Amino acid sequence: MADNTCHFGLNNFFADNGLDDAYPTWLYFPADAAQMAACVEAVFDQPGLRFIFSTRSKVPNLLAENGSDIHGPGYTFTPGKDEIIREGTAGYIVSFGDGLYRALDAVERLKQEGIDLGLVNKSTLNVIDEDMIAKVGRSPWCWW
């Protein structure tokens, strides 16, 4: 994580540990400021406990291959759904939060070397997106 080895580097999944199942718990870690704004708007009235993680460090907005802001105007955050940041034919890297822009840099560099990896943003940490699991699982290679 960008914040160093302070308490922010602890395992975020412990926030969903040992709580009563009668109250749903949602763990979110948006990848950039634009996704953070969309996430807060989407989950503000959601029932249950909502934890939205962030760092204190500034991260760049994620850009599409055409240079537009991925989470810019018209973007809607959907709780529990992973999103494709880059398509790939060789496999996928799955990342979240402030690690995503670093993973995107690696994916872009590998594409320049002829390795066509894709990138998935898993911004809802504790919910399985069955469709995305199936897509990534059908690919020749994946790294979690």
Characterization of the model:
This protein has 144 residues and is an alpha/beta fold. The chain has one domain (7-143): Rossmann fold. The chain has 3 helices and 6 strands. β1, α1 (33-43) and β2 (49-52) form a beta-alpha-beta unit. The longest helix has 14 residues, at 99-112. It is globular, with a radius of gyration of 15 Å.
List the helices and strands and how they pair.
Blueprint: E1 25-28, H1 33-43, E2 49-52, E3 83-86, E4 91-95, H2 99-112, E5 117-121, H3 130-138, E6 142-143
CATH-defined fold name: Rossmann fold
Shape, principal axes of CA atoms: globular
Order of helices and strands: EHEEEHEHE
Q: How big is the Rg? A: 15 Å
Stretches where pLDDT is under 50 for at least 5 consecutive residues are: none
Structural class: alpha/beta
CATH architecture: 3-Layer(aba) Sandwich
Please summarize what this structure is.
The protein has about 140 residues and is of the alpha/beta class. The chain contains 3 helices and 6 strands, in the order βαβββαβαβ.
Defining traits:
3 helices, two-stranded parallel ribbon, 24% helix, Rossmann fold, alpha/beta, 144 residues
